[in-house]
Specification:
Pfam families: DDE_5. This is Transposase. It comes from Gemmata palustris. InterPro entries: IS701-like_DDE_dom, RNaseH-like_sf. Helices cover 38% and strands 22% of the residues. The protein is of the alpha+beta class. Among the domains are: 8-50 and 273-321, no CATH class; 178-239. Strands 1, 2, 3, 4, 5, 6, 7, 8, 9, 10 and 11 form an 11-stranded mixed beta sheet that branches. β2 and β3 (100-113) form a beta hairpin. α1 crosses α10 (276-300) and α4 (54-61) runs parallel beside α10. It is elongated.
């Protein structure tokens, strides 16, 4: 058996450095001069050889988190693949970026944050046709995984999409506080007035205790929205103040910042390989590349985008020292 010429760290370094091209061909083109440089198919074989495993991400992320503090945030994002017709895992998903249903790969992430750091700890690829698992199934798997790893967060924050009774009870059974959005038609019972939808129940902005059908007592905050409606935030912590709710809700925005970071800096959407295995490996390696950007940002105060731009800036400086593109020299008569 031949010895591999490239390893996961080689691909991660390439993802960190390259500004645009994220193919095996481009990876081969930019390799440093050496007697026997790897060809493009060495990188293709790497993506087919490595076993896709979110635990590999956790092995590197565990040193970056404080498991007895911080907040866990769960959300999903669509990795755009608008022109993919033969790439596995690509199906149609709602995109918050485009505000429409688009073609792409759906990534469900578990992020740890303390307000400053953005550490991905777990992830799943939503592919119900292949594994028959829903987003809520993936949610449950990651929450149980976080509990087994010893997390004791200040709270778990997630979108209303994941506010099923099973998920709420799972987090309660872990002994954790949850905070989520509820739809206006969610049934509650306030002061034994009878079961009715939230939109037909008087809910204070500072919080109102109600009985959530199928769960038990929860505290709901009715927050006025700019369009004249009401957003309903709910928690199982009956002593939560509105200030604490605001703080935890702001933590939930960390995952949106994280989604932009992995797309702008790691090329997570740009893999051109067709097989599901290669796509899964590219996504996993891109997330590990992001971990390095985040660690660098925390240590130096330099943002992810600036850190990547600095690499390109050095290449531009080298070219300006010895420019070689211009009009060809012509002999004059």
């Amino acid at each position: 058996m031949s010895v591999p010429k490239v390893f996961p760290q080689d691909y991660i370094d390439f993802l960190i450095a390259t500004p645009k091209g994220y193919s095996g061909t481009e990876a081969a083109r930019v390799q440093p001069s050496q007697p026997d440089p790897p060809a493009h198919d060495a990188f293709t074989r790497l993506l087919a050889r490595v076993e896709p495993d979110p635990d590999t991400l956790w092995a590197e992320a565990r040193t970056q988190v404080r498991r007895d503090d911080g907040v866990l945030v769960v959300d999903d994002s669509t990795l755009d693949k608008p022109y993919a017709r033969a790439i596995e895992l690509v199906t149609r998903h709602w995109s918050g970026k485009h505000h429409a249903v688009v073609r792409g790969i759906n990534l469900v992430s578990l992020l740890w944050t303390d307000g400053d750091r953005h550490i991905p700890c777990d992830y799943r690829i939503y592919n119900k046709d292949a594994d028959a698992r829903t987003k809520n199934d993936h949610f449950g798997d990651m929450i149980r995984g976080a509990y087994a790893r010893g997390f004791k967060p200040r709270g778990v924050v997630f979108d209303g999409w994941y506010s099923s009774l099973d998920n709420l009870k799972l987090i309660r059974n872990c002994g954790w506080v949850w905070l989520t959005r509820l739809k206006s038609n969610r049934l509650v019972n306030k002061d034994r007035e009878g079961t009715r939808a939230l939109e037909h129940t008087t809910i204070a902005a500072t919080g109102t205790d109600v009985w959530l059908t199928g769960f038990g007592l929860v505290k709901v905050f009715g927050i006025a929205t700019p369009d004249g409606g009401t957003a309903y935030w709910a928690t199982n912590d009956l002593g939560m103040t509105d200030l604490t709710r605001v703080q935890l809700a702001e933590f939930s925005w960390a995952i949106e910042h994280y989604h932009r970071g992995i797309k702008q800096c790691t090329g997570i959407e740009r893999c051109q390989c067709r097989t599901a295995r290669a796509q899964r490996n590219h996504i996993g390696l891109a997330l590990r590349a992001f971990l390095r950007f985040e660690a660098h940002c925390f240590a130096t105060g330099i943002s992810w985008v600036e850190a990547k731009t600095a690499i390109i800036r050095e290449a531009v400086r080298d070219y300006l020292t010895r420019p070689h593109i211009g009009f060809p020299n012509h002999r004059t008569a």
